[in-house]
Amino acid sequence: MIRALALLCLLATPLAAQELSDCGDFRSDARNIPEPWEASTRTFANGDVRLVLLDTIEPAAAPYHLMILSPPFDEVGGRQCKVLSRENASGWAGIQFELLEAGYDPAAGLTFTLPAMIWLPEKNFVNSTELTITLNQSTGEIGVTQTLGNE
């Protein structure tokens, strides 16, 4: 009974917000793209949008991040580059990049969904989650939500 109550309290606690930041720190280094690179990167929108799985190795319990290259383009033709992490430059315990799904809605833009695993060390809690990423190519706006699994 106490375990069930503790789990309900944990599920009622909001998860930390995801962190979207500009590329340029250790997370977006090319050496963090897991081999083979073909399995860790996907393109969309005629090559204008690229999602890349990143594995920073540390912290060992949460090393996985996503890099998002997308319009709008700058004055020399470069795309914006963003890194998506779970919290404070710490990533997810796992991301199932091979299960990445994409769709398009003219009102919302590109939508990506993929399963991941979170680890909350302060609560000794591991659980599945689904990441949903929306991308408006016109504005460059990126939105992220995370839905906790039912374990």
Describe what this molecule looks like in 3D:
The chain has 1 helix and 10 strands, in the order αββββββββββ. The chain has 151 residues and is mainly beta. It has one domain (22-148). The radius of gyration is 16 Å and the shape is globular. The model is unreliable at 1-14 (pLDDT under 50). Residues 1-17 form the signal peptide.
Concise synopsis of the structure shown:
This protein is mostly beta strands and 151 residues long.
Radius of gyration from CA coordinates: 16 Å
Rounded average pLDDT: 89
How far apart are the first and last residues' alpha carbons, in Å? 16 Å
Taking pLDDT < 50 over at least 5 consecutive residues as the criterion, the unreliable ranges are: 1-14
Tell me about the biggest sheet?
5 strands, antiparallel
Give helix % range: under 10%
Note the overall shape: globular
Structural class, from secondary structure content? mainly beta
Strand content: over 45%
Instruction: Give me the side-by-side strand order of the main sheet.
Output: 1-5-4-3-2
Number of separate structural domains: 1
DSSP summary, beta strand count: 10
How many helical elements?
1
Order of helices and strands: HEEEEEEEEEE
